[in-house]
Queue: 3 jobs
Job 1
Amino acid sequence: MSERAVVFDLFHTLVDPEPLYPTGFDKRRAIATIAGVDPAGLVGFWNDTYVERETTTVDLVDLFDRHCTALGRPISTDDRDAIDQVLGVAVDQALREPHPEITRLLDDLGQHTVIGVLSNCHEREVRSWDESPLADHVTVFGRSSRIGAMKPDRRAYDWIAENLGIEPARSVYVGNGGGDELRGARTAGFGSVIHMNAFDRQHTAVTLDEQARRADDADASVDTVADLAATLHHLVDG
């Protein structure tokens, strides 16, 4: 393997659903209301099934139905549709309508560089990927739910390298740093690791201290898409 590539994280790196959520929105509590079950219990179930959601292709409505059925309240057909719509809030729009600067960046980068995406995600989160203008510029899209491993597990990085046919040491990894993905990319042998902070710095989902901690795991930290583009062109074309 000798191809050079740029591998991106997806959410909060290429697309950012955070500003698209309604104020005060909590999908788990919204689903509990639809299903007519205790919100705290459903939140606990959601937390307990994190690894299953992210590393298998389980249907999320079926997953919630497992919890509700155990409580004697199986989810009805109508409620299944409503829950599915709640699960798609913000993420569908974020994928279908990415920031124009990001689309231009991938369009330009893809003219001379192989692009991959490696995402920790469940199946519902990325249902609209094929409708995203970003998809046209990505050679391989790796999702943890199908790989069977989440970043920072070395298997996730090995999977994207093998399927792209690249040499990590000659390639760049870009992510916002959630889940210690940047540290994992460094351990997996990526030649350059970039902390993409352009979206996280615009809202309060990630604290300033956490942003700084993530930046320490990278070779460079960028706060705008323009800075990311300049950094990538220097690394890829230099």
Job 2
Amino acid sequence: MGHMISKRADGKDAMAYVGATPWHGLGQSLTQGASIGVWKKEAGLDWEAREGVPQVLVPKNGIGTPIPFSNHKALYRSDTWEPLAIVGADYKVVQPGEVLEFFRKLVEVEGWWIHTAGCLFGGRKVWAMATRGGKAGVDRAGKDMIHQNILLATSLDGSMKTVACETAVRAVCWNTVNMALTGADASGRLIKISHRQEFDHAEVHAALGLHLDRFGSFMEEARQLADTPVKLDEA
């Protein structure tokens, strides 16, 4: 199960997408331009991570005595009550719905649209990806088309920072999310936000440099590669 797609409380797959059906065949197909509210429901991001005080049962006088771990907190899902993780007391939660809210201004003002979103590993990781309306062809015939995408992902179990990047990868599962993030990290283009600090949408937008034409530079390099012949023995 390389996709690692979670289930919603109603049993449906916690993933939604626009366009071609993902390789795993899961999720809800949405119309381009669907509202953030619709995406939250259909992608299974319409719940919150709630906090509680974890306890351990310590044998005392022959019975288990609950001892609270006051310097930690337990996270669990508000819809299914399933546990997510025990994290430090200073862990700043980025809620599932907030991952989609990150794109609201881009969607409503700047011509982007949500492309894919969903929950992974029972809700322990979530992602959303937005695409700019335009696209460009790598080859001269214009058949090999690439979209400009922005991917945002976070964890609710401490296994991953909140991360954002531009990517040409269509994120539809854990494998493709990981592929996009690994590629961006290797090239130094991955924005990382620790869970010990507040997640600031504006700061991440600025760090991504969305006002710059980085996609144009990427396409120029991609076309140079596409125009470079490679002999069979070299390949």
Job 3
Amino acid sequence: MRRSQIAPGVHLSYDAAQKFNRCRISIHFAFPARRETATAHALLPLVMERGYADCPDMTQMTKKLARLYGADLTVDARPMGCSHNLCVSITGIKDQFALEGEKLTQEYAALALGTAFHPYFVGSTFDPEAVGIEKQMLRKALEDEVNDKRLYCQRQANREFFGDSPAGVRQEGYLEEVDGLTPEALTEAYYEMLRTANIELIVLGCDEASTTAVKDALLMELSAIDRAPLPRAENIAMPRREPVRKVEHFDTTQAKLCMLFTTGEANPNPPSVSILRVAMSVLGGSATSRLFRNVREKQSLCYYCGSAAQRATGVMMIDSGVEPGKEQQAEAAIIAELEGLKNGPITQEEVDDCRRGLLSSMDALGDSLAALENWYYGQITRGEPLYPPEYGKVLTSAVSLDEVRQTLQSYSYSVCYAVTAEPGTQGKGGSEDVE
């Protein structure tokens, strides 16, 4: 993968990816998440994916993609710590496989750039009908969050953990704001994104000439915009504190337990992602991890139990599904396993067992353009030099027992959030603080 700056706040990343018979063009817009515009930016990809100026509705868009041998266009939003990321991507077969010599890459670029820079407007704003339809979809998604108890518990725990900090912005949007969103407000949020976002153009599977043509087309679009890219959001970490415990009661047969841990302060040089991956795999990220073997299998305290960590926000999450009434027992067992890794012996064998799963997953990255893009874009957002998955395997293999232990020792317990049922409360919603 080669990466170069092509304009202020704009970079091109390119890999010919010759082994694939398909190519992929993605335009990433990354900008600091803001509370004032969070709901508008959550709605934006839903409206943009419906069509653009030259292809203004979903029926026409579907037909056009079908004519391009079933190309796939997506517009999605991804929270990334304190940043918001909107990505327009298109994937399709390479030019040399077109039956009649069509210039497919040129068509793909026109679709992606049209979607990103020429949305379908009625007058000077997004189509009010499209906005109205997608507001209903966003509202339903936010209303249905509570029906997915695992997701709900995770998000509630995060909201308690991050509070009013920049990482606490609900990038999925705020239900109470959806009805008040207007086409004008959505259009203003869209133009703000074009002005302030750092843009990453990622081209995979195209030859150099086609990549240059895509780059030039992007620069032409940007020349018409008064750009003022904002700096990327910096790493943060929530301060250490006594653990806060909260419980919500629902009519549910399986309780959810989400435990969050903090590093306590933003680290300008946080552990490498390779060290984090191994540490999380040893703790709870694999079928040979401590949490899986001891809490789930030996003690039968949970249906699932996994761990994950974010470098950008200094948070580690352990979430599990437990039988109602066994939340405190499961919590104590999880803490005991974490303390055992912090202060007790860690064997080379258990680390190697967990490491093998990570190495196998890195082997699979080379089979998917989307997976390769995610691999490289993660490095870009972390400010790392770009290296292929093969070198990632080398770095992962070099992680030591001491690095795993030191990483886990950096976390302290901060929030415990449970969603459960209690006798006499089935069918009733509510929440309480637990002292």
